[in-house]
Amino acid sequence: MTITLIQRMNFNDTKEHWAMVQKEYTSNIIPHVNDKIEYGLSRDAQSITEVLLCYDNDSCSVWLEECMSPYPYSNCDELKKMVESYSWKIIIA
């Protein structure tokens, strides 16, 4: 099953500057709301807030709780470089 993690990430001290990021994984583990996920982009485990299963194409979209970037960035280009270094991509900025 293809699992797509999706998260809103704030990249400075205010919530005015944010980006939506995502990464795809292949796994047979079906995630559930309130499960926690650890991954390299975040210092702490993140809670799952929503799960959407699509049996037609064997996929699952997983929304994670909103988080602050582990480091402050002055603009989206700096955040994009960091996000891509973890093999994530920005889908909305």
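[next item in queue]
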Amino acid sequence: MRKLMTGKQAILETLKEQNIEYIFGNPGTSEGPLIDMLGDYPNFKYIMALQESVAMGMGESYARSTNSTGFVSLHVDSGLANGIALMLDALNTGTPLVVTSANYDSRKINETKTDLAELVRPVTKWAVELDLPDQIPSALRRAFNEANSHPKGPVYVGFTSNALEGMAEMTITRSLDKFDNVLPDPIAIKQASEKLIQSKNPVLILGDRVSDDQANDEAVKFADLIGLPVYQSRGAEVSFPSSHPQYMGIHTLRSQESRDELKNHDLVLAVGMDPFDELFYWGDVILDDHANLIHIDPIYSRVGKSEPTYLGIVSNCKAALSQLNEVIGSQNSNQFSKRKTTTINEVKTRRNAYKTLVESQENWNSTPMSPARMMYEIANSLPKNAIVVDDAISNRGALRNFIKAENRDDLRGVRGQSIGGGIGATMGTQCAFPNQPVFGIIGDGSAMMTIQGLWTAANDNIPCKFIICNNGMYRVLKVNFNIYQKEVLDLDETAGENLLYSNFDTPFNVTEIAKGMGITSERITDPSEISNAIKRATDFKGPYLLDIVIDGSL
């Protein structure tokens, strides 16, 4: 039914129709008309950030945690530009977001007025700026549809003051649910099954879209069925239980071991991922001539995009794996059983070797403590129903070895190439799961990128817990540059520990910074203190920060 209203009212009425609960934002003068109306809409929870990257981090993790579209409200051109880094990450990794901001009066065409849609077009699926109030309902309806359609990603809608303050008769409605679970071609499933049965040594690599498609159980059933080893690529979402006896861990081309591992397999089945998408260039073709790639993904443009593909299947991940299970399950193969035994033994050997390595190191009981010791103590101290947000950066390997994740929402990794998302992601995840403890494990360099986000946690009493891995440096720069010099450039000597401008020579005390923003916090230097500190944090009815000092040596 058409109704006379202002553009700013149309925005809030549309958000209500879209079942938006949280607005993550940083308000400015241009957005004043919209902010002023929020008093008439108490159903919205507006979470105010002091910097736009914090709002983007909250919106991104909230969208992933709720399997919905996040809504973020930024401020004109300067604020919108501050959100671009995490907007780009959302575009590259497929998180549905609707991002908005206001702009000046459209009559200021000869003065300083930025084309906001053009500003963010490279980092969004669709971007538009509106001048008329009656453009708003249909544009926002399209925005939510675009954001949540494959390939999912951020969409931008800007509003001039004319659009916000103008009045028009408008119809507020939403598009109902859209079903996009594409089924695989039966011929493709038959060919894939035959190739998998013939393969002597296949490997399964799973991406985040397996979890997005709720295909975890089918992935486990498939792995159990044919006995192959399983890796996750990036692993920002849990696509496979980390305690499973065939789970090998995270596969990354930055690891020489992972690159060598690929040479052992004659078939790679990649599901719900962009195969071998990595920071460094390791060659135009990754797999050896003897190996074939079968790629299953719900996004048409990603299948066969970069690596030569023996068989590409466009399909919902759950549907494809289910049909593979059905076809292959009719086979009675001793080969599968023998392979499964071999895989389980290999996983046991690797896990025991890692445990022996880290626990026998001289610094297991040293001060500052090793990252492995810190993660070991954290893993043994977290509440059983805790959700972990992983922004541990260069300490992610240790985190994933000790902190187990069985189901999708047990662990959520900050994803993309930016750093600085962890504080916002921890708060956004807590907003999505208000009745579970949420612990963000965050590198100190990443935390300092958006440290003002701690104020938001205090201001809105978001009861998440922040654990800062304080090694006093941008350790990830040293790690990555070491790999680049040694393995990409093949240099005999690397900068290693001596990389310039990567140490925090003037140390910062995150504990005191947190206290200054209203967060209860404590500093930890002894690993034996971690367990009791986590209990205190868990029992505390509000946000809490643990600043854990660790060794940063390579």
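[queue empty]
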